[in-house]
Amino acid sequence: MIWAIQNMCSGVLMRMSSQVLIGVDANWLVYYLNKNSVFHKRVKKAFEELEKKDVQLVATWQTFAEFFAIVSDKKRFEHCLKPGQVAGLIKNYIDSDWLQLVFPNIYTGRVFLKLIEETKPVGQRIHDIFLAATLISNGVETLLTENVKDFAGTAGLKVMDLEGTLL
Fold it and tell me: Which residues pair with 58 in a beta bridge?
């Protein structure tokens, strides 16, 4: 299957597998971990449903850094975890077949600059734009997140929230 990023950069990203790649934002990992969250059951069910399909969930180091920042902060996570505990969780995710780790590649920079030009991000939103660029340049067309506004206007990336709505 060929993933064209021609509107983002000059070149085409080739992917040999026909498996659909779906990005996972840090907030979904936080809700999955936090059994007290009102979103936990829905995130867990969504992950279980996706596992039944020919879908590969993907994350980036940036996703894991944000996950770490949230779950190790007592102001943001009720029962915060110690750094070693969070590192262990991240290692388990990486070592499993459940999440595939993707990295910035030779296309990411061009996609990133094009998205900056198109979305004109300000402040912290630049991190979301870089996440989008990393995902798009790896052939990921959909991102699971509850922060749908953070990805508004991001060409090449559909956003799906817990309601299952592609935005």
Answer: 23, 100
- Neighbouring CB atoms inside 10 A of 28's CB total 27
- Tally DSSP H helices, then E strands, for the chain: 6, 7
The answer to whether 77 and 86 are in contact (CB under 8 A) is: no
Whether 5 and 13 have beta carbons less than 8 Å apart is answered as: yes
Phi and psi (nearest 5°) for 135?
A: -65, -50
Q: Sign of dihedral through CA atoms 79, 85, 91, 97?
A: negative
CB neighbour list of residue 8: distance below 8 Å, 6 or more residues apart: 107, 110, 111, 114, 115, 136, 137, 155, 156
5-45 tens-digit pLDDT: 444 443 434 444 678 999 999 999 999 999 999 999 999 99
Q: Of 128, 122, 108, 109, give the one whose Cα is nearest residue 66.
A: 128
Annotated domain spans of the chain: 18-160
pTM above 0.85, yes or no: yes
Q: Write down the architecture of domain 18-160 according to CATH.
A: 3-Layer(aba) Sandwich (3.40)
Contacts of 108 (CB under 8 A, 6+ apart): 133, 134, 137
